[in-house]
Please model this.
Amino acid sequence: MNIPEFESFRKIPRLNRECIVTEKIDGTNGVIRITDDNQFLVGSRNRWITPEADNFGFAAWAYARRDELMTLGTGTHHGEWWGQGIQRGYGIGHKRFSLFNTT
Model:
């Protein structure tokens, strides 16, 4: 009988800082970009969007809340646009934006 050589399971590095672990939400990617000169852009995973060329209503929602979203500050703010009519919907009657990363 030919027994293969045993391969030990490698050590898993430990995380030595505080972190937050959340559920992966099934929705669609949403991006808010605020430039140094206060330009406000809204995007999906692959393109800039507008209320006229939207992604599940995210651009219309974001532009209606532009002043509030500008408080995020300069940078690119990534999140998930999810809820009614998007992917699994989660049984809610509206859509939500959940911010998950800013750069």
User: Anything to note?
Assistant: The longest strand covers residues 75-83. Strands lie at 28-34, 40-43, 48-49, 75-83, 95-102. Helices lie at 58-64, 66-69.
